[in-house]
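Hello,

Our lab assistant flagged a job as stuck in the queue for most of the afternoon. It eventually completed. Since we weren't sure the result was trustworthy after the delay, we are filing this so someone can double-check. Below is the sequence as submitted and the structure that was eventually returned. Let us know if re-running is recommended.
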Amino acid sequence: VQLQASGGGLVQAEGSLRLSCAATGGTLSSYVVAWFRQFPGTEREFVGALSMNGVTAVYADSVKGRFTISRDNTKNTMYLQMNNLKPEDTAVYYCNIQRTAVGGTVSTWGQGTQVTVSS
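-- returned structure --
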């Protein structure tokens, strides 16, 4: 499976942005989907994740109530809706999918998309 992220860009503080991540070469419904972000000089940090059936979501405290992960398994695409953005949300955002397989967890990353929030 390959992932292609899109939707990043420059937005003013308190604005909104929606990131998309399209999967090809596999069926997204077989995976838990997640978003991570990376600030310059730091490790990637968890933003949120959504179960395979789209019912259960978990979020980092820093984005809870502002960000929402969703998925459209018919389009093989996952989304990250970001509202009330803050300058500290500026980062490269990565989509990620995971499933359990024999021998361990299979994890695939998208290429990352830059989000810049101006004050």
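-- support follow-up --
The delay was a queue issue, not a problem with the job. The result is valid. The radius of gyration is 14 Å. The CA atoms of residues 16 and 24 lie 27 Å apart.
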